[in-house]
Amino acid sequence: MSIAVGGSIMKVGPHDDAPRYRAGMSDLELVELVTSSLTRMGFTDVQTVNVRPQQFAGAAGVRFGITGKYHSGLNMRGDIVLAQANSKLDAIMFIAPAAYYYDANSEEIEHLISSAHLAS
Known about the structure:
The chain is of the alpha+beta class. Helices cover about 25% and strands about 40% of the residues.
């Protein structure tokens, strides 16, 4: 996913109140952008784990794990990679039920992250 300056991770209208991407956000602000967006979408108990620098398609970025609950109460787990380049935020966000799907797809997600190319 690519998000332009002023855009949101969520599908919202231009005048809706939602967390918005700003050029030059720090890694911690990017993490907060994701967690705030997920909370707004109805996820609860959202927590980040293992926040660290990560090269993403040749650009400096940030990677972190995420845990929480879907609005139904189902435990979720995810892996997020973000990089700012070419006046936009590029992201891979994998969020799945923690009980089975996260582990079952983790190798495929690692391959996707390592082979990704940023849009120009």
